[in-house]
Amino acid sequence: MSQQDLEPLDVEAIRAEYPILEREFSVASPTQRADGEAVDDGSQLVYLDNAATTQTPDPVVDAMSDYYRESNSNVHRGIHHLSQEASIAYEEAHDCVAEFIGADGREEIVFTKNTTEAENLVAYSWGLNELGPGDEVVLTEMEHHASLVTWQQIAKRTGADCKYIEIDETGRLDMDHARECITDDTAIVSAVHVSNALGTVNPVSELVDLAHDHDALAFIDGAQAVPNRPVDVADIGADFYAFSGHKMAGPTGIGVLYGKRHLFEELEPYLYGGGMIRKVTFEDSTWADLPWKFEPGTPPIAEAVGLHAAVDYLEEIGMERIREHEEMLATYAYEQLDAEGDVELYGPEPGPDRGGLVGFNLESVHAHDLASIMNDHAVAIRAGDHCTQPLHDKLGVAASARASFYVYNTREEVDELVAAIDDARQLFA
Ligand code: PLP
Predict the structure, then answer these.
(1) Cα(4) to centroid of ligand 1, in Å?
(2) Distance separating alpha carbons of residues 76 and 299, to the nearest angstrom
(3) Separation of 136 CA from ligand 1 center, angstroms?
(4) Which atom of ligand 1 is nearest to 113's Cα?
(5) pLDDT in tens, 353-376
């Protein structure tokens, strides 16, 4: 890694490419609200809800708008110029994503709607056909519903069982329990790379190796990893790996399923229709080459152009620098919140196995009330179960608050978060 890679981010220059961050919201302080006073000025947005969706920088918006202004057409190699251009742009987006995550070419990259659809694709194509009574699907207690609900329901339909690798009191996976859970009965291990609720960075290569030692497949949910750290699917060794464009400075409406080529070749299509076939007769059909076999109908073309631009944008900043920036902010936030004394923090203490988000609860204030007070300060955080209800049951809370960071966030914004917490404490005292 070059020294340049390790230089801190020029956050001011980065922020200039996100006009949305300039937005101001007129909000009432608790005293103003109590007195029924009108609000006179606006507060600038502090956007700390990046684990849900990141903001979109100008280069990505411009790439999509240029596409619509200049090249918009349907793909699948129509004869005319615009269709050729759109097809090339769509295909090149696959190449760019493949290179970004270390896949072996566009054949291993299927565009889906999002991570959730990528999970469903494998669960339906592979799970429904391959699972049966006696088979086990091994998940973790910190799975997002995208993975947990999908495998749970496919297991119910096929007679397979789900097992959950437990977390320990630090919010890390209990790897001894992982070794107990993953056995010769395991058909697939599906694990989240970075937990969206705890921030834990899981030892995914180790889980993949355990799965492979027992001839099981491994699916990794990288929705909170690919946007925030260098990811190389070949290094990790997973059979499938999924993530979403809208969490990595890209557009909504597009996600990625990486799959090893030989597995994609063996799998049945998940959805049928035009664009994914080679030959159709009244009796039967055969399938197009990879990855098109899994992309029926008109695909998300402008979104693919946007995702390509997002990958270029992130690569230019440098994924290692992004990881360091987020680690710095998460550490600072964790320490500030911990120093408050009445804030319960979830997940591991700051370090290399914590990603760029902090989940917490303020004693005696419900997370939703806290988020609402934050909103009064124009601080956008998320409160709820973060699509991890069973994990929250295990933690013994119905909901938690979550602040999550990206390339444009600053330490000053963390200070605003903490100031808003002080305000909430006063209000509920
Ligand atoms: N997996 C994880 C870890 C997530 O954080 C999310 C979204 O928050 C998802 C899956 C689902 O992503 P999407 O809603 O883009 O399908």
Answers:
(1) 32
(2) 10
(3) 23
(4) 16
(5) 999 999 999 998 999 999 999 999
Hey, whose CA ends up nearest to atom 7 of ligand 1?
52
Query: Looking at residue 428, what is its pLDDT?
Result: 84
* CA nearest ligand 1 atom 12, residue: 115
Return the residue whose CA atom lies nearest to atom 6 of ligand 1: 223
* Element holding 382 (H helix, E strand): strand 382-384
CA 185–ligand 1 middle distance (angstroms): 28
Q: pTM score, two decimals?
A: 0.96
Confidence of residue 37 (pLDDT cuts 50, 70, 90): low
pLDDT at 42: 84
**pLDDT for residue 323:** 97
- How many Å from the N-terminal Cα to the C-terminal Cα in the chain? 50
What one-letter code names the amino acid at 157?
Answer: R
User: Which residues surround ligand 1 with Cβ inside 6 Å?
Assistant: 51-52, 114-116, 144, 146, 192, 196, 221, 223-224, 244, 255
Cα–ligand 1 centroid distance for 230 (angstroms): 18
Separation between Cα atoms, residue 391 and residue 144, nearest integer Å: 9
Domains annotated on the chain, with CATH: 3-57+317-427 (3.90.1150.10), 102-297 (3.40.640.10)
Residue 201: pLDDT over 80: yes
- The yes-or-no answer on residue 387 being catalytic is yes
Q: What is the DSSP string of 151-212?
A: HHHHHHHHT-EEEEEPB-TTSSB-HHHHHHH--TTEEEEEEESB-TTT-BB--HHHHHHHHH
Closest residue CA from atom 4 of ligand 1: 223
Q: Are 291 and 109 in contact (CB under 8 A)?
A: yes
pLDDT in tens, 76-103: 877 999 999 999 999 999 999 999 999 9
